Amino acid sequence: MSNYTNIEEHGVVDGASSFVLEDDGFSPVSAPLSDQPGSPFPPSSPPLAQSSPVDDNSYLDDNSYPRNVDSLDGLTFSSYDDGEAYIAQRAEEADFAIVKRRSRNRCLTIPGGYRYHDIECYMARFSESKAQSDRHSTAVRCGCPWKGTFQYCDGLWKFTLKHREHNHVKQKGSEIPANRRRHRDMAVRARVMELSRAFRARAVDIAKQVSKEMNVTVTPKDVQNIRDAEGVKSRENFTATQCFFRELRRDEDCIVEYKLDERNRPVYVLFTFKSCVEVWKENPEVLMMDNTYKTNCFELPLMEITGSTGLNTTFSVAWCLMSGEKVDDYRWVLSHLTSIIFTHGLSVPDVVITDFDKALLRARSEVWPNATSQLCVWHIQKNVRFNIAKKWDGSLEGTYLGSLIGERGSQIRDDDAAGNQRRSAARTQSNPSSSNDLTASARSTADISRRWENDADGCLDAWNTVVHASTKDESDAAWDQMKIEFRTQKAILDYLDSTYIVRRDLFADYATKQIQNFGIQSTSRTESAHAALKSHLSNSRASLDVLLRAIKDTLTQQRDTYFRRLNAERGKDIVECRDTPIFRDLRRKVSHAAFKTMLEQWHIAKEALERSSGAVNMACTETFMRQHESRGDPSSNGAHALAFMESRAPPRRSSIAQHSRPCDQTSAWYEKETRETPLA
C-alpha cells in the first residue's frame, strides 16, 4: 500500500474504460493566488491552455519553480508501490511533492483492485474557502496543474505524465509535509517515542536529534503528530480522560475518590496508592500541601500532598485535581482525605504546613480542628522581600533587595512612589505643618541608636529578627524596635502588621518550635515534588492519562531515592557516632539525619555541662524535644536528656521518634528491601 494520503476520496467508477482529464487551467470562480494581495507566490503568467501543456522553456527553467521531471514519462514498474516511491523520490529531488488523488476502473484481477491511479502535485486544486478569522494562514493550495497517471497493462505499471508545469514557487523538497510523512518509517516513530519518554524531552529537541541520527527531516510538528498517533493507538479509541479513569479503576494499588458534574466532567479527582498509604502510616505527623499549575490540558490546579521520611527524603501522600481553589473545594478534598485516613487505619496529621492560602486554612480548621496549622516561612519571606522593595520610600541603589527586584520591580515601585508623592503633596497643601512634622520625624529617626541599617536591607534584617526570635517576648521587642527605627516607612509597617504580625503564631520560630514538626518550616519539599513531576511531562498541557503516568514515574523515582539512601546508610556509619560510646548501640538502626540532629544537641548539652561544673539542674526549654519527641513517650523530655548526658548512659531507643527509625519500619513499601538487605 502507498504511504501517501489521498487528498480527496472519490467514488468508484464501475465499468469505466477511459477517463477525461479535468480542467487544467485556473479555477473560474477564484483568481490565481499570485494575483491576490499579499500572496506569497510570484506574479502569474497568462492562463495555461486547457488542452495541452505549455512548451515555455523560460518558464520551466526558472529557478524559482520546481525543476521539471520529463524523464519520468513512459517509465514502467513491476508494482505500483515501487513506482509511486520512485516518482515521489524524484519529485522530492525536484523540490516538490506528489500525493495520490484517486483510483479508477475497479478490477479484482489487478493487484490493488484498480487499473488506474492518478497522482498530482501537493499544491493541486484550491483550498476550500474558510470563514473570516483573525488567524493569518498562507498554507493554501494554488491549483497546480502538474499530474500523472499509473496504468496497469500486461503485468506492468506504466507512468504517463499528463501535465509537466507548476504554477508555484519551489520549496525545499525534504521539508514538504508529504515528503516528511513518506520518511516516517517504524524506526523513526520508535525513536521519537523513545526520546519522548526521556526527562524534559521537548518536541524541538527530539526533532533535532532524530533528524541528526536518521538523516531525515523531522520537524517539531512531526514529533507531536507521531505522539498523538501513538496516543490514539494505545488508548484503543477511548479519549484521554476515559483512559485516565479506566487506569485508576484497573490499578489494584490505586485508591480514588472523585466527583463529576451533570455533564460527566470531572470536578474533583482525589487519588493515592496503597504504597503511599504504607509510607504515610510510618510518617503521619507532618503533611505539606501545595497546588501546582500548568500540568494538564484542562488547566485544573493539581494539589499535591507530601510528607517526610526518617531518612530525610520526601514521599508523596496524595494528589487531587480541583476545579477551583475556594473553601468548598478544599473542604471536599480534606473530607475525602479523612475518609481514606479512617478506612486505612491512619491518623489525622498533627501539623499541616501550607502557603498563605486563606481558603485552605479555613477548610483545614473546619475538617481537622485538632491539627496545628503552620505557614510556609519561605513563601512569607519571599512576599515580604518583594513588598519591602516595592514599598520602600527611598533609594534601593546598592542594596541586596535592589538587585533582586530588578527593572520590573523598579517600575512598580516608581508607580507606587508617584502615587505616594501625590497623596503626600495633597496632605501638605491641606496641612502646611505636616512637612515640618515629617522633617522632625526623619531627624529623630537619625538621632536614635539604631540596631539595623537605615535602608531596605536593614528593614529586611529587622523583620528576620522578628521572625526568628526564640521567644514571643523577644519577637515583640524586636517588632517594637523595628517600628521605632523604620517609622517613616509607614506603608511597609502597615503591610507587615495587617498581614503577618496578626498571624505570627503560625510561622515564627518561637511558635513552630513548640510543635512536633521535626524542624520542617516550609513546603519546599512539595515544591521539589512539583518540579520532579513536571520533569516527566514534555509540555504544560498534558492529557490526564499522560499526567497519571508521570505521577507513577515520580513515585518510582521517590522509591529508588529512598532505597539508595537506605542502602548507603546501612553500609557506613557517622564517624563521630562510632567513636562515641553512648551512640554505638544505635548505629545502623537510626537514620543519619536523626544522628546529626542528636549530635548537635549532644554538643550543646556537653558544653553546658562543662560550663556548669557537672550540675544537672540546669534550665531547659525543651523546645528540641517538643519538635522531635516520640509520640506518647514520657521519657522524651529535657530532664531525661540532661540526665543521660550527665551519666553518659546510652539513650533508650524508645526515646527516639519512630519517624527517625526507618529501619524499624516493616510496611509493605519497605518489607522487600529490608528482607533482601539485612542490617549488619
Automatic annotation (TrEMBL):
Pfam annotation, one family: MULE
Annotated region (Disordered), positions in chain: 23-67, 412-444, 644-680
Basic and acidic residues bias locations: 670-680
Domain of life per record: Eukaryota
Biased composition (Polar residues): 421-444, 655-668
Coiled-coil intervals: none
Domain MULE transposase: 286-383
PANTHER family hit by this protein: SWIM-TYPE DOMAIN-CONTAINING PROTEIN (PTHR31569:SF4)
Descriptive protein name: MULE transposase domain-containing protein
